[in-house]
Every structure is written in C-alpha cells, then in structure tokens.
Amino acid sequence: MTTGLLTTTVGSFPKPPYLQKARNAFASGKLSREELSELEQQATREVIALQEEIGLDILVDGEMARGDMVVFFAEHFAGMEVGGLVRSYGNRYYHKPVVKGPVRWQEPITVDLWRYAQSLTDKPVKGMLTGPYTMVEWSFLEGYDDFRQAVLEMARAVNYEALELDRAGAPFIQIDEPALSTRMEDIDLAIEAMAIATEGLTAKTATHICYGDFVSAYPRFLDMPVKQFDLEMANSSHDLVELLKTEGFPEDKEIAWGVVDVHSHEIESVDDVVAEIKRGLEVLPPERLYIDPDCGLKTRTWDESADKLRVIMEGVRKVRAELGIE
Amino acid sequence: MIATVVGSYPKVPNKPRPARLRLAINKFDRGDMTLEELDRVADEVTIEVLQEQVEAGLDFVTDGQIRWEDEQTYLARNLEGVSINGLIRWFDTNMYYRQPVIEEPLAWTKPSTVRDYTFATEHSSKPVKAVLTGPYTMARLSVDRHYNSVEALAGAFAEALNREAKALQDAGATFIQFNEPAILQAKDDYTTFVASCARVVDGLSAETGLYLYFGDVEGIYPQVLDLPFDLIGLDFVMGAKNEGLLHRTPFTKKLGLGIIDARNTRLEQPAAIAERIKTLGAGIDPDNIHVSPSAGLEFLPREVAQEKLRLLAEGVRQAEGVLV
C-alpha cells in the first residue's frame, strides 16, 4: 500500500464532445433531463476509468454535471436565481446568478453523482464544492444589505451540502474559494465562512488556492480551517520552498503540490515533474505531500489531460521508487 | 445637470429578444457570415443601444462600445508594436481581457474609434461623447517587452491616444473622455500618471473628461483637481471615501457623480438618487454635474442596465427640480 506522495486532481475534467452537445440540446429544450443525466453518468464512468487506468490515488467525478461553478449551486439553493446574460470575455457570456433573498440549502445537489462515481471505484472519490465567499462574490447581491451576512448564511448552506457528502461517505471534501484571490483583504471573512462550511465534517477537508495569494497572506492563510492546501504553483514552487523553509509550515497540515501547468498545451517531461516533487520534499514529508496538476483540467482536451496525468504518475513512481515508498 | 454613462453598454439582450451580435460573431467565426454582414449587425445593435439610452432619459450617450472586445484590445490592436496575448482578469471583476504585449515602439497609424463615433452621432438624437481607455491604464494592463518602464510606456500610449483623440476632435467630437481605473490601484505612481495625462490632452480644444473608478481618490485628492481635464468622474459606490474627501476640499471642476452601482443588479430608486445628488453636489453648479453609473455597464444584464439608467435619469430630473 502506498504511504506517500498520493496523487489526485484539482476537480474538473474536460467534458467529452457528446456531453457538450447534449448540454446545449438540453438548454434549448431538445433533450430531457433524464437523457442528459444518462450522458453525465456515461462521462463520469469515462472519467473514473481514465483515472483508474492512469493509477491516481484520490479520484474526482470530474464535475460532468457542472458548467459554471457558481451557477451550478445557484440553481439549487433557495434565495438564489440564475440571472441575465453577462459577458465574461470576447464573445463568451454566462448567466450570472443573483442572491435574491435569504439563502437556504434545500436538497442534496452533488451527492447523487458523487455516490455514483464512488460506486464505480474502490479508490476514494473527492466531494467538490464551491466556497461561500465565492458563491456570493461572483453573484449579484440583491437580497442582503450586508455582504458579510450573505457570505455567512451562504456558508451555512454550503455546510449542509458538505454534511450530506460526509454522511454519504465522502472521505475528502474540497471547498474552493477562487474569488478570494481578487480580494485578499476579505481573508478574515473567508476564513470565518470556511469554519462554518466545514463544521461537523469527519472527511478530510481541502481548498484550492493560487500560489501567489497563499504567499501574500502567509501565514494568515494557514488559519483557513482545512487540512490541505491545494496550490496552483504557476511555476513558482522555488519561491514557495524558500518561504516554507524560513517561515515554517504547520505539522498538522498538508499541501497538494501542483506539478504541471494546466493552462499550457505542452506536456511536461517526467524529469520536470520529478524535479517539482523533489522541491516539495525539501519542505514536506511524503505523507503530507500530495501531487496533482496545478488547476482544474476542464480547459484542456481529453488527450492533453490524460497525457499530463500520465507524466505526473510516472514522475511520482520514479520518486517513490527512490524513496522506497510502495 | 446631465444624466450620462461612463462608457460600455451590454452588447446582447436576454430572451425573448435575440442575442443578435453574439450569434453574428459566432457565425462570422465559423465562416458563415462575411465581415460586411457582421459590421451591419454591429451598426444595428449600436443604433438599438443609442435608442435605449435615449429612451431611458439620458442627456449624453455613448456608442456603448459595442465593437470593443475589451477596453484594451480595441485600442491596442491597431497600434504598431503591439501583439495581443492571452486572457487575464480585468481588475477585480469577473470579466477578462486580452493582454496587449508591447514588442516594439508604439506607433499610431490609423484611428480605431472615429468611424464608430461618427456613426453614433449620425444615429443619436442626443449628444454623443467619445470614450477612450486612458494611457496609464493601457500601460498598466499591458506586458512591456520594449520600454522596460511604466513611465515610458504610459508616455508612448499617451502619444498614441493623443493622436486618436485629435482624430476624434477632427471628426467633430466635442467631449473626449479618458477612463483611468488603474491609477486608483497604483497611487504611488501618481507622478507618472500626471505626465501621461498632460501628454494625452496636449493640443486638444474639445472638452475633456477623466473617469476614475473601482476605488477612491484618497491620497491623490485634491491633487487630481490640478489635472488638465474639464471634468473628473468619481466612483461613489466602490469609492465610499470619496464623499468625505469632497466634503473636506471643495471640488473645483465639473464633477462626474458615479452613484449608481454598475456592478450589482439591485436597483436604486429615484428619490434616493436625487438625495445623493443633493448631498454630493452641494455647492456645485448643477450645470457642471454629470450623473452616471459608477463604471461601464457591461457587468450587468442589458435589461437591468437600461432600468438602472431610467431610474438614474428620473433621479436627476428630481434633483434638478429641487436645485434649480
């Protein structure tokens, strides 16, 4: 049994073209909810099979039912609505959600597909949630006068969903707060909200964060009440090593070290991956060092994703062999 | 008193109205539409957008920047020495722009916005203002591989944008506005900013405006009152401190009051708007006040943007009734 350098991914996988088509057909009323769900399950099977074939340790369901990470939850929380079209860039638009009134969790949102994914594999599958700060910050806010109150009530709603995943048996729950990176001055609020969102969980908790933000708010960021920081490195691991060497890193926390750049088409070499892993090992023991791509894979093609994961796995196997980890 | 906008307007409406421009660009990208056909759709959408602003009750409108991919690319792509790079977040918004990369000395060779401006004035029943992104913001949001200094790059952009502004002026523009959100995130660089401002308006006889949004002017106020613009627009939504600053040192230029939240759908009511205008505009000649949203309107769905402008205009008319 492996005892170190566990491998995982940040969360999303690319949607197969047939699923993308089906989502468009569903949006224009040409496909039923049941038909779409079947295809989401098919894609989930393919995502799980790919991760198993590559040999990753902690799997994800690949978020085959999700488009935008905020809209997906906004469609299910009471007090939220999916609003009008807003441009995100070029000719790309999305329906930006609106917080209309008191936000309340109503029913499990991610549990069925997580359970389905977990039923396909003996390996642990992570539960993936969007954090409360991001849910509010990336929505229009109409129903609250107070931003903070909206975030804290959102945190309770996220907590209900997290508890459902926990009860269903999810061994890992990752709650991401990408919106924080544009407003690090709100870190206290984000930490307070994360404490609510993770209350009562027995699962291991994680959050994905940009390297630069982690460093700029160091060591305050360590107060984020999660076990694992999943870092988008953006080729800066060298600086992180220096920081952790001088400032230290708590012994009860873990880092998932992003060793390949998901924003590039190029596939890294095994040697590059090995070098990155070794940098991580300078500051963390293998039991607390997880290895993954540096961000969600949904912007890559299926083949690029698979190639990047294979390179990661090959690098990890090499280092494990050197360290005598099996 | 003038009811106006800061610049952009949402390009596509929501159902049941068709998202014509979006569909046209998709078709064009697939090769199913010619550039001429796409241009015609963009013109028709510009007319719609002008009409919506007038219907809402505005006194001073823009072309909505309907053709602009983003506030950098549209001005940068016609300059020599620039290539356009990947997507990057625009300030702290959820909108992305393509980053200009400065590879060689910048050179202005032809206007980017003159035809849009002329078209808009021909199709608007209200006066149209010309809006450009300012040189400092252009410089800060670019990758500099040539000048190796923000100062030099901002100066080069100021030179190029000065040519653009003169071309607009030659085409009849009587009010030319520069949007400079970047300086509020980099106040330490104020000296560089001042130099780029002087250079960008050099030789202009048209009235000029400067809009500063996504923050407050604490630290550079009242110094901004010495800048060579006739009007300065401030953001009283994200720049909560601006109110206190104005209270402390009287505003001596025409004032742009950005008091409608351009980044949230929550609607402001006319009575409250009128009250804000009375408070913030106290002591300023009403003719010298331009009331607007806090920033461009592209962060909002189209229908919400128009409704906000309608309420804004109503608030302005109420305030006029009291102040006149």
> How many β strands of chain A by DSSP?
9
Structural class of chain A: alpha/beta
Number of DSSP helices of chain B? Answer: 10
> Strand portion of chain B, in percent?
15-25%
For the record, the CATH architecture of chain A stands as Alpha-Beta Barrel
Strand order of the largest sheet of chain B: 1-10-9-8-7-6-4
The count of domains of chain A is: 1
Between the first and last Cα atoms of chain A, what is the distance in angstroms?
A: 6 Å
CATH topology of chain A: TIM Barrel
Count of runs of 4 or more consecutive helical residues of chain A: 11
Instruction: List the uncertain runs of chain A.
Output: none
The residue-averaged pLDDT of chain B reads: 97
Order of helices and strands of chain B: EHHHEEHEHEHEHEEHEHEH
Low confidence ranges of chain B: none
Oligomeric grouping of the chains: heterodimer
- How much of the residues of chain A is beta strand, in percent? 15-25%
Give me the count of strands of chain B. 10
Strand order of the largest sheet of chain A: 3-5-6-7-8-9
